């Protein structure tokens, strides 16, 4: 095969690019207690009426439940006074009635509470996802991809679990505790004071537990995120790991991180066990005090045995909810930590701002400069661009010269460190047209989304009819899709090769129909024979296009070529201008690439 001009490669070697995740300490913000509470208040206020009804139901349910110990006390008094069976039966009926009514009210209130919390959570989840996709790529990478992943998975899971379990249980327990203490005080203030002896022990146990467990939980979340990061890195770099025979080292890394998470989890369990022992001791102490004071009050103040029994039952009733509330503290803390991390995503100042309508498809940059957070120097410095609507510009330069960085700045996925880039007069991160993004970036990283062929395409335009999908597929030369068993409804598997996945990405460009398209080595998977050329021609037709090319054929066909070196524009012009510029960088690169081909052909012919 003769790899003539089409095969000449424009970029050489891989640059020594630092892995940003490894080099940066930066992470996404975490909201403090006040910020989380403010957010929660704002979200819950949206459902004020439902919350008022919930409060009324829970209060009524808890108050009705208080009748049970009171009436049981009356039964004791009635037995001691040898009252008739009819009276006792009436009391027994009242106990059953109070039990049924209170459980119905509490159940109803509980269900309403869960739906309020779930709605608030759904709102939070939507806001977090919407913000997470607008945070600039480098912030996400700098924080470690697993940080974002663990927030939208682990933290959401922790809060979802809490919203349907521990949170409503704790609120119900809170109502029961408050009303029972009031009931106890109404029965006899001395008995209520006796019960209070349990409080310092409970407080002590709780404070010790919180002091101990808070840093442990924070450590645990961090260690779980580290473990996730190690696994993600190993899976992503599986080929390199296998090629370098470093499976053992990678497994050891994951094992070390897993072990530290397990060890922390064990410390948490030990702290919890000690806490439970403290609560049991408090219960024993309180009940003993109530019985002793009850005995004294019965002798001294003529309190009936039934009233003391009711007080002991009140106290006993108190301990179920107190225990539930206190032992839920770690789940609540976990949920609070998760909430802080989720609300933190909302504080991350998403770079991609709401869209503003562009005037046209011209691209203009002035003094555009970008420095990566971990970079010692600027990746791009003082770039000026004036690209007319509908033209195709190719970026050329050796590896590390700044082509991808410039592509990402024009696409509005990186925020300029200085200067600005405008699409039709609007900053690139805000550029919109008819409510959609006006500029799209297709990189060489291929993404196949779970789902059918149609679902993969409709990501670009959810309302596109089947005919539009087929037209887009035909335009990018994806003939293979015609042979799929279920046509557009075929579920796509990961056996699809990168070139085909990239064809789908370019078909999405046609469906999204942006005024400006940025292709960052998007055809690299088409190899040197230009398998993806049809797709690229279709994607750039009638739009402003910026292409980081990997073959000279793409530069030859472009309207304009920009040669970058060390983050600056070295020269620019048409292919004919540049290739004939004596001693010019482009001319030298072009000649070198073609000399390489001839050598290659010569070697092939000699074999
Ligand atoms: N995430 C990053 N963190 C730190 N520095 C980076 C990062 N990405 C790129 N750089 C640095 O910025 C400079 C420009 O890189 P860029 O990727 O834009 O070059 P390029 O010409 O596209 O290279 P290639 O052809 O290899 O993709 C290089 O010095 C590179 O090492």
TrEMBL record:
> Domain named ABC transporter: which ranges?
363-591
Name assigned to this protein:
ABC transporter ATP-binding protein
* Transmembrane stretches, start-end: 50-76, 88-109, 166-184, 190-210, 275-295, 301-319
Q: Which SMART domains match?
A: AAA (SM00382)
Report membrane topology. Multi-pass membrane protein
Q: Where is this region: Disordered?
A: 1-27
Keywords noted in UniProt: ATP-binding, Membrane, Nucleotide-binding, Transmembrane, Transmembrane helix
Q: Spell out the Pfam families in the cross-references.
A: ABC_membrane, ABC_tran
Q: Where in the cell is it found?
A: Cell membrane
Gene Ontology terms for molecular function: ATP binding
CDD domains recorded: ABC_6TM_exporters
């Amino acid at each position: 095969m003769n790899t003539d001009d089409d095969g000449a490669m424009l970029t050489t070697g891989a640059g020594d690019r630092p892995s940003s995740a490894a080099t940066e300490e930066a992470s996404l913000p975490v909201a403090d207690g006040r910020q989380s509470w403010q957010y929660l208040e704002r979200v819950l206020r949206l459902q004020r009426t439902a919350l008022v009804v919930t409060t009324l139901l829970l209060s009524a349910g808890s108050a009705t439940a208080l009748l049970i110990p009171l009436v049981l006390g009356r039964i004791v008094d009635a037995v001691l006074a040898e009252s008739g069976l009819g009276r006792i039966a009436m009391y027994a009926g009242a106990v059953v009635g109070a039990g049924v009514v209170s459980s119905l009210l509490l159940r109803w209130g509980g269900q309403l509470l869960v739906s309020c919390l779930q709605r608030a959570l759904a709102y939070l989840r939507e806001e977090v996802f919407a913000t997470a996709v607008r945070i600039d790529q480098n912030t996400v990478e700098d924080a470690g991809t697993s940080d974002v992943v663990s927030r939208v998975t682990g933290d959401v899971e922790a809060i979802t679990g809490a919203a349907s379990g521990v949170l409503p249980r704790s609120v119900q327990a809170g109502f029961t505790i408050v009303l029972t203490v009031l009931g106890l005080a109404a029965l006899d203030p001395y008995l209520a004071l006796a019960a209070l002896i349990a409080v310092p022990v409970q407080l002590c146990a709780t404070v010790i537990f919180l002091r101990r467990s808070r840093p442990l939980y924070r450590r645990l979340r961090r260690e779980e995120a580290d473990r996730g990061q190690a696994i993600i890195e190993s899976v992503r770099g599986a080929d390199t790991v296998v090629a370098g025979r470093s499976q053992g080292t990678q497994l050891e890394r994951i094992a070390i991180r897993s072990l530290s998470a397990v060890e922390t989890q064990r410390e948490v369990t030990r702290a919890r066990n000690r806490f439970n022992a403290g609560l049991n001791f408090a219960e024993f102490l309180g009940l003993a005090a109530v019985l002793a004071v009850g005995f004294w009050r019965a002798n001294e103040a003529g309190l009936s045995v039934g009233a003391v029994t009711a007080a002991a039952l009140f106290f006993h009733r108190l301990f179920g909810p107190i225990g539930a509330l206190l032992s839920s503290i770690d789940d609540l803390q976990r949920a609070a930590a998760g909430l802080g991390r989720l609300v933190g995503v909302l504080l991350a100042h998403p770079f991609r701002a709401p869209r503003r309508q562009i005037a046209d498809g011209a691209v203009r940059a002035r003094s555009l400069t970008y420095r990566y957070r971990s970079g010692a120097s600027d990746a791009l410095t003082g770039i000026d661009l004036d690209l007319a609507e509908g033209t195709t510009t190719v970026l050329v330069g050796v590896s590390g010269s700044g082509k991808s960085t410039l592509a990402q700045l024009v696409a509005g996925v990186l925020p300029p460190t200085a200067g600005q880039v405008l699409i039709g007069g609007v900053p690139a991160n805000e550029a919109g047209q008819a409510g959609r993004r006006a500029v799209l970036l297709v990189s060489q990283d291929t993404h196949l989304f779970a789902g059918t062929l149609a679902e993969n395409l409709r990501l670009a335009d959810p309302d596109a009819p089947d005919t539009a999908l087929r037209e887009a597929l035909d335009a990018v030369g994806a003939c293979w899709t015609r042979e799929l068993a279920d046509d557009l409804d075929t579920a796509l598997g990961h056996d699809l090769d990168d070139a085909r996945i990239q064809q789908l990405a370019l078909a999405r460009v046609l469906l999204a129909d942006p005024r400006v398209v940025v292709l960052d080595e998007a055809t690299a998977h088409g190899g040197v024979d230009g398998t993806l050329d049809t797709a690229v021609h279709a994607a750039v037709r009638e739009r402003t296009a910026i292409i980081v090319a990997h073959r000279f054929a793409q530069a030859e066909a472009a309207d304009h070529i920009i040669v970058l070196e060390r983050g600056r524009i070295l020269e620019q012009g048409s292919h004919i201008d540049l290739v004939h510029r004596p001693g010019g960088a482009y001319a030298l690169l072009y000649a070198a690439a073609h000399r390489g081909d001839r050598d290659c052909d010569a070697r092939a012919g000699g074999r």
